Amino acid sequence: MDNTIYQITLPTPYAVGDVHCYVLKDDPITMFDAGVDTDESWDAMVHQLDEIGLKPNDIQQIVLTHHHPDHTGLIHRFENVNAVYGHRMTDLWLKQDESYFAHYESYFSTLYDQFAVPEQYRNVPKTIQNAFRFQGKRQLTNIIDEGQEIPGLKNWHIIETKGHAQSHLSFLNEKDHTMVAGDHLLKHISSNPILEAPLPGNERPKPLLHYRRTLKKLQSFSIETVLPGHGDIFNFQSKLIDHRLQRQEERAQKVLNYVREHEVTPFEVCQFLFPKHYNKQFGLTMSETIGQLDYLEEAGYVGSITRNGVLMYKATPLYS
Ligand SMILES: [Zn+2]
User: Fold this and answer.
1) CATH 3.60.15.10 fits 5-94+131-236, yes or no
2) Which residues have CB atoms below 5 A from the ion given as ligand 1?
3) Hey, what CATH class is 243-319 in?
């Protein structure tokens, strides 16, 4: 075993393009993430494993950064994998947990009433079914979280990095300072903070606030090389985090200027912020919109009240 980590690049049917997995040739042989469940992706996997002297049956365990289908897709195709590790929210997706998804759909139905979302943009059940179609078809063997160790991965530290997904974890090698970052930190683009239903009985997640917190959190670790889920491998720089945060604050300022002029619903803010994209990418654009409103509300720039069941946002007196 040479203890080297290898990048595997697989095609996806998504706009994001290729996705990367990483194979750690150690004992046990470990794979981080597992592409999307298509034959094209599997063929590319088999071919690239061959190039590094491995067969699919050599892979012994898989560690997942988050539940998205382009990261879990092939987990059931490795016959000798006896352990699959991931967050408890990843477990619910892979299990297609009936009670969670019944809750998920009714939660969004109520939420979209509050956001004043017209019927034609509501496609949550379809989005869930699409995810099921391309995600992995087996369950986790072990649920992991920050502070725990993964068997066989001695020098690896689990960092909770929710924001892009509530299930998101990153993995930092404390010896060589390499981080498997999933979709938490990419070189060229900011990750989408995606709104998901909470576990039943919990408050609505605030994905952009989580994302800001877990981005800043990375600045307290010693990280050198970032192995991302998409795009180029790059050297970690603290100023990249500052840059991402600053860009987000600029977008929030744009929202604040709009909200200063009128009292508005979240759907109206979404149309304003993404006039060209909101109807084709509704889930993503609405997630980003509510994220900006959460940010402005937490910072005290805007407030919300409920009128006839709909959330209305306006600038607080100090900022109007
Ligand atoms: Zn993702």
Assistant:
1) yes
2) 68, 183
3) mainly alpha
